[in-house]
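Intended use. Records like the one below are meant for learning the mapping from a protein sequence to its folded structure. Do not use them to infer anything beyond what is encoded.
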Amino acid sequence: MLGDEIRTVRSGFTLLAPPGVPHKMVNDYWVPARMLVISPTNDLETNFLE
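Structure written out for the chain above:
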């Protein structure tokens, strides 16, 4: 999910989630998924919600 849009992605896809846009990842397969997140920030007190 990216904002109000649900997207299906496959291996090798790249998504950009701009600041303030809600987003999440759901793995519907039995094979473990890997995700690389790069989030540049100067805010050393960034909070991550699960």
